[in-house]
Amino acid sequence: MNSIFKIKPYFSERIWGGSKLRDFGFAIPNEKIGEAWVISAHENGMGYVDYLGKTISLKEFYQNKALFADSRAEYPLLVKIITANDYLSVQVHPDDEYALKHHNSLGKPESWYILDCPVGAKLIYGHNAKTKAEMTTAIEQGAWKEVLKEVDIAPGDFLYVEPGKIHAITPGVTVYELQRSSDITYRLYDYDHLDDLKKPRELHIEDSLKNIKIPDSADVIVRQAQGAIFDSPYFSLFLYQPGQNFAVNPEIPWYQLTVIAGSGTINGVDFKMGESAIYLNQNQKLAITGNLKVIISWIK
After folding, report:
1. pLDDT band at 277 (very low <50, low <70, confident <90, very high)
2. Which end of the chain is more exposed for a tag (fewer CB within 10 A), N or C?
3. Taking the CA of residue 238 as centre, how many other CA atoms within 13 Å lie in the half-sphere pointing to its CB?
4. Residue 144 — φ and ψ, nearest 5°?
5. Average pLDDT over residues 113-135
6. Is 167 assigned to a binding site?
7. What is the CB neighbour count within 10 angstroms for residue 90?
8. CATH homologous superfamily of domain 230-298?
């Protein structure tokens, strides 16, 4: 049986979108695309798989437990490539308990691997408030420069964004984002962006304050990440580069593959930059040829 199934991505229009995703091999439909949901079974951005002569959703594909030796009811992960032409809103995400209670959804831990950014680029990552009162005052006074924390980034850096961590992507930055399959986001600050109707977008101050970790949680940043980048109960990542080996764990039923550079083959299937797939683990070695650079991700 074939063990590798490519995913047809979903392209998301954003007010800060553009055409840069074409540089990563994507045939985007217009000049307003900010995100490619390259592996997604979420209703807000569904991916599709060719299986037995038909094109079916990744959600439907995952329900075939003869293929996925997995007891989870819903596909648990989501992978995006995000390109920003402008500042994205400053956000915070809920944990499982809050998201389940208020949205009947999973919480949203996420992570970023920096694919491209300008020299000297920074991301908003965390805050400087010591108490909730201090954070509330900063919000009321619009003291964003004082309360928001910036960190330097370069291509190849990795950042983990746990629930409750304030964060935002900045102009010119392109990231591979791995997250739980959740689309719950609270906007704390939006740089006075206007929507298509020329109105300010909704903010979620109350929900944000209930979820921001105060004092700020510890930073989790891996500079020039290589090999086994990150491991957690939510998801794990490995950066494969030419000449390396990746040991398939027989206890992991499936892996996600996203090619971030190069061209070649994976177990005999042709791949190029921008393509993603599901690998159904048959206890085989992942045989990767060419100059492919691949982010391999999974959940335990």
Report:
1. very high
2. N
3. 17
4. -70, -40
5. 98
6. yes
7. 22
8. Jelly Rolls (2.60.120.10)
| 3-class secondary structure, 266 | strand
State which CATH number among 3.40.50.1820, 2.60.120.10, 2.40.50.90, 3.40.640.10 fits the domain covering 4-222.
2.60.120.10
Known binder of ligand: residue 93?
yes
Q: Closest Cα to residue 139, out of 124, 129, 153, 130?
A: 129
Task: Tell me how far apart the alpha carbons of residues 160 and 296 are, in angstroms, rounded to a whole number.
Answer: 16
Return the percentage of the chain with pLDDT > 90, whole number. 90
What pLDDT is stored for residue 1 in this prediction?
Answer: 60
**Percent of residues, the chain, with pLDDT higher than 70:** 100
* Alpha carbon 20 to its chain's center: 17
- In the annotation, is 14 catalytic? no
Phi, psi of 207 (to 5 degrees): -65, -40
* Dihedral pair phi/psi, residue 97, rounded to 5°: -60, -50
Catalytic residue, chosen from 14, 72, 187, 223, is 187
Of 252, 254, 284, 253, nearest to 268 by C-alpha is 284
Greatest Cα-to-Cα distance within the chain, rounded to the nearest angstrom: 61
Name the token pair of 50.
């060719």
Q: Which of 299, 296, 298 is nearest to 113 (CA)?
A: 296
Ordered by start, the domain boundaries in the chain are 4-222, 230-298
230-298 matches 4-222 in CATH topology: yes
